[in-house]
């Protein structure tokens, strides 16, 4: 693994030249760390307006039948019609999409975004339930936990495609197959990309540890929240685009056990009830992602 | 009397409803008494059930209806009527495919592996509160389909019980309208049913032979103590009618009825939170189940 890791680290450094990281990515990541009530509308409008393709996407989506019949022609009204949550998700989704060329996507991009946004939302809701002080941070950690997918897609396209094919065929967890075939997993590459981008240790840990079934003594609450959210999404049809064979005792998971020591409110969480709650919220995620990708497909066919 | 939870189309939204806080209180009341939970996104379903009861009582005010459920002398009867409204008796075969997938992919392979080492190769299933028999017939078809594959070399016993004699009689006859078989494939219909006219199908002898029907009262301790060595118990939408103390007693009986490593399946919306903490809640793809842990055994393996 050490050999692969140093090779991986060297390659990740070149990632920036492989594809251009959109200029708004850094300010966007900074903004995402803030609680919703501290995000300034003007700042969001500025970010959206900065990039014409993103502005067009927001306008297109705000004008979709999902958001009423009124015709919207300014970025400001589009942002207001969509709501802050949705705009944030669209922005980050589109930024990440552009990090890698279309031909290199191994996992279906919409499945990837459904899973990432699902984890983000579950981590945030769970954080609120247990009274974790920064639920917004949990949202971001959930959103970014699978960045390793992007690295693997760009740097190891064909091998990663084979991993996903075998995982889907065996209905097995992807990281298990990655470890067998590549010698490392998207957790390793995700960790390295997060480090390369200068994200804080908590986000790095969440990317690194979210598939660790063993004790996570060094990892903080965010890594544990993200691990549980990832598991929950995968058993509620928001996995990597295929249905895994799995049975999980979330309450017996080490991530749960570690969290409950610091956040006793977790004991009062009825997991059946929580699962039903998130099922409802997931419908909105699926709807958002589907409309973003439907709009992309329409745009692509219009230009081809 | 197991009943299926009605999945009506949302008719009203919380925002547009003036009695929102009364409905939230009713939601909590239903959750506390029956264990059935309506998330915010599904509240319109609860509201439309309440609307039926409110119309029957001649009231249009949600807060007045809340009084009917909480403070008026007929409150216990009204609560039961609302529960009946929420859980309609209409059901059909293969209603919960995700639970069957969990059985096939995760639970049975694990049980077979453990039981394969010791004792006879026999599995015991119990459908507690089987009503008109759709559930045990589904289970029987599922097991017969696995006979040459997963269950090669194994035998099984399906016990299906209910308190209601009329339901048991219907279940035993095994005659169903087309509607009850709407999720059953043509191949299975041909294999396990015969046409008895009047647009009805009857379970054939092979299918009938898989199930033993019996009358069992889940509140009768002596009857409950008698059931032993069970691998899987299904008890869907039955416990919702029990008060918390009786529910706890029934669940504790289920726990002792099950072999270590066994599973209890409830309805998808039912929770045992604050009812029992001996069972472990396990999430499968699209389904949940309650597990009686075997010593030093982890569920599911790979994560």
Structure, described:
The complex is a heterodimer of chains A (304) and B (303). With 304 residues, chain A is mainly alpha-helical. Chain A folds into two domains: 219 residues, Orthogonal Bundle (Hypothetical protein af1432); 80 residues, no CATH class. Helices cover 68% and strands 1% of the residues of chain A. Chain A contains 17 helices and one strand. In chain A, helix 3 packs antiparallel against helix 7. Chain A starts with a helix and ends with a helix. In chain B, strand 9, helix 11 and strand 10 form a beta-alpha-beta unit. Chain B starts with a strand and ends in a 12-residue tail after the last strand. Chain B folds into two domains: 85 residues, Orthogonal Bundle (Chemotaxis Receptor Methyltransferase Cher, domain 1); 195 residues, 3-Layer(aba) Sandwich (Rossmann fold). The N terminus of chain B is likely disordered. With 303 residues, chain B is α/β, with parallel strands linked by helices. In chain B, the strands form three sheets. A seven-stranded mixed β-sheet of chain B has the order 8-4-3-9-10-12-11. A three-stranded antiparallel β-sheet of chain B has the order 5-7-6. In chain B, 41% of the residues lie in helices and 19% in strands. Chains A and B meet through helix 15, strand 1 and helix 17 of A and helix 5 and strand 11 of B.
